Amino acid sequence: MKVGVLIGGDIPVRAAHSLAADPLVDSVVVVGPAKSRSFDVVDDPSACDVLIGSGRESLRRSRRFGLPLIWDLDEPADGVAVWGASPFGVAAAMSVREKKANLAALAHPDADAANGRSVRFARPVGATQTSPVRADGHVVHVGRSYNEYAACLVTSKSRSVTVVDRAAFMSGVALAAGVSVFTAQPRATWEDALTYLETAVGMGLVMAEA
């Protein structure tokens, strides 16, 4: 698989480095205009199988090239092959994996401040107020982290599973891991939760169980 990375902020840059080490990916190029010391830069990504990007601007660019997109927004759109390649998607996929989860939650410094349910995440994130966010029938309680770390938490009757890492790293890995569920049929990352999570773990995310 040849992946073109639409640079726009730090997240796609981090994703590119995770993709470069992934066995599913044969090559990674950066789609210009951009500069890169680590990757070839191309103006025409037509040789790529898929593009990967962050935010709505990436969708505009991928449509211009006529190529499918893996993105980090948590909603489908015309031209998007994989959505939910994000920390939200990680939390939702963790919830699917648990099957009988009673809580799925995410704290991230880019999230809006909330005033709903208080959720206590592992340190250094700690407790924060959350609000429920719904996607495809899944509910993740999302709140702001007030430092550089992000955390995902899923609990069930038998255990709790946590991921804590620097937010920028988690976001980059979550975006890159979307390649693992890329097929001809558009879908969310949590629709193949095990594959998505296994890839994210292989790229460096650590899940702790208690």
Task: Give a brief description.
With 210 residues, the chain is of the alpha/beta class. Helices cover 25% and strands 32% of the residues.
Fold and architecture overview:
The structure is a single chain. The longest helix has 12 residues, at 87-98. Helix 3 packs across helix 5. Helix content is 25%, strand content 32%. It has 210 residues and is α/β, with parallel strands linked by helices. The model has no long low-confidence stretch (mean pLDDT 96).
Notable characteristics:
7-stranded parallel beta sheet, Rossmann fold, alpha/beta, single chain, 14 strands, 2 domains, 7-stranded mixed beta sheet, 210 residues
Question: End-to-end distance, in Å?
Answer: 37 Å
Stretches where pLDDT falls below 50 for ≥5 residues? Answer: none
Q: Which sequence of strands runs across the widest sheet?
A: 3-2-1-4-5-6-13
What would you say the CATH architecture of the largest domain is?
Answer: 3-Layer(aba) Sandwich
* Total domain modules: 2
Please name the CATH topology of the largest domain. Rossmann fold
Integer-rounded radius of gyration: 16 Å
Number of helices: 5
Percent of residues in β-strands: 25-35%
The geometry reads as globular
Q: H/E series, N to C?
A: EHEEEHEEHEEEEEEHEHE
Q: Which structural class do the helices and strands define?
A: alpha/beta
